[in-house]
Automatic annotation (TrEMBL):
Active site annotation, chain numbering: 29, 156
Enzyme class: transferase
Pathway: Isoprenoid biosynthesis; isopentenyl diphosphate biosynthesis via DXP pathway; isopentenyl diphosphate from 1-deoxy-D-xylulose 5-phosphate: step 3/6
Protein name per UniProt: 4-diphosphocytidyl-2-C-methyl-D-erythritol kinase
GO terms of biological process kind: isopentenyl diphosphate biosynthetic process, methylerythritol 4-phosphate pathway; terpenoid biosynthetic process
Gene that specifies this protein: ispE
Comp. bias regions, Acidic residues: 1-12
EC number: 2.7.1.148
Cited PANTHER family: 4-DIPHOSPHOCYTIDYL-2-C-METHYL-D-ERYTHRITOL KINASE, CHLOROPLASTIC
Organism the protein comes from: Micromonospora mirobrigensis
Organism domain of life: Bacteria
Length: 318
């Protein structure tokens, strides 16, 4: 579908790539472990996290164009700015600058991942834009090169290039895959009405910690990594943890009722996803996940609940 970027003849280098549309699918992420360390001098917190990509997707289609444009449908339409502030546009510009090509494309986003939901939807879209434009423009970068550009766009973006289950350190941008025998984990994703701003949730966590009102930081992800290797949902359930949960609950106390409803429905564990307000629940298997999703939705404690599974691959041409 794509050809290498390179000179067509010696005098007139020409851009090669896909002539037809390139469609890229990208997953949402949850954090199985989110250990938030101290605030660093650069304003970021030191993280020890285990990312996990799940079967809730955004899709980005890239077509040839004479300028760079973005349209969208689905979650967040009418709310999300489609200008240079959008991570899709920023990613296209970053790739074009790196590869030395003009940043021209017609991009269309189909969004299922809720805005500001703690599922890294914006980062997922940035990762999708890097992969889609790389194929459209024929720039032929490796996943590692794309991940390096991704790190400049946001802490979660490199993970969404790779997908799967991975350990994230630094501010989350240093990603190494968790190698485990293939296991599917079954989740319920309970989407809230409205989002939470990630920087605000970090500020609330700092405030709770300064006031001595937060639990001890989780620290390393070693116990979670050991639990993953056992491939038993009950063992994984006991190891899930998120330092940001207390702060998300403090800003959005109604999430306690969502977590309770999941527990009442028989989920093995429930936790806030990233900075929230989405809550995720671990189920014993796929049919249990469907049943728990229906019960949580019937309890009226979230906007929507649906079953999902993971790990899923990162941003990929489909
Ligand atoms: P994270 O878990 O990485 O903190 P999140 O899931 O809480 O992220 P996102 O939906 O990724 O939140 O986006 C947060 C903010 O990023 C949005 O409120 C919006 O202002 C901005 N943004 C820019 N581009 C996008 C995009 N394509 N999709 C979603 N948000 C975007």
């Amino acid at each position: 579908m794509t050809e290498a970027w390179g000179p067509d003849d010696e005098d007139e280098p020409r851009l090669r790539g896909a002539s037809g549309p390139v469609r890229v699918r990208v997953p949402a992420k949850i954090n199985l472990h989110l250990g938030v360390g101290p605030l660093r001098p650069d304003g970021y917190h030191e993280l020890n996290t285990v990312y996990h990509a799940i079967s809730l997707h955004d899709e980005l289609t890239a077509r040839r164009g004479d300028t760079l444009t973005l349209t969208m449908e689905g979650e967040g339409t009418g709310e999300l700015a489609l200008d240079d502030s959008n991570l899709v546009i920023r990613a296209a510009h970053a790739l074009a600058a790196y590869a030395g090509v003009p940043p021209y494309a017609r991009l269309h986003l189909r969004k299922q991942i809720p805005l500001a939901g703690g599922l890294a939807g914006g980062s997922a879209d940035a990762a999708a834009a890097l992969v889609a434009c790389d194929a459209l423009w024929g720039t032929g970068l490796s996943r590692d090169e794309l991940a390096a550009i991704a790190a400049g766009l946001g802490s979660d973006v490199p993970f969404l290039i790779h997908g799967g289950t991975a350990l994230g350190t630094g501010r989350g941008e240093a990603v190494s895959p968790v190698l485990a025998r293939p296991t599917s984990w079954h989740w319920v994703v309970a989407v809230a009405d409205g989002g939470l701003s990630t920087p605000e949730v970090y500020r609330e966590l700092d405030r709770l910690r300064a006031a001595g009102a937060a639990a001890a930081p989780l620290g390393s992800a070693d116990a979670l990594l050991a639990a993953l290797r056992q491939r038993d949902p009950a063992v994984l359930a006991a190891a899930l943890g998120n330092d940001m949960q207390a702060a998300a609950l403090s800003l959005r106390p109604a999430l306690a009722a969502t977590l309770k409803a999941g527990e009442a429905a028989g989920a093995l564990a429930g936790l806030v996803s990233g900075s929230g307000p989405t809550c995720v629940f671990l189920a014993a298997d796929g049919s249990d996940a469907e049943r728990i999703a229906a019960e949580i939705e019937a309890a009226g404690v979230c906007r929507a609940a649906r079953a999902a599974h993971g790990p899923m691959p990162g941003a990929r041409v489909v």
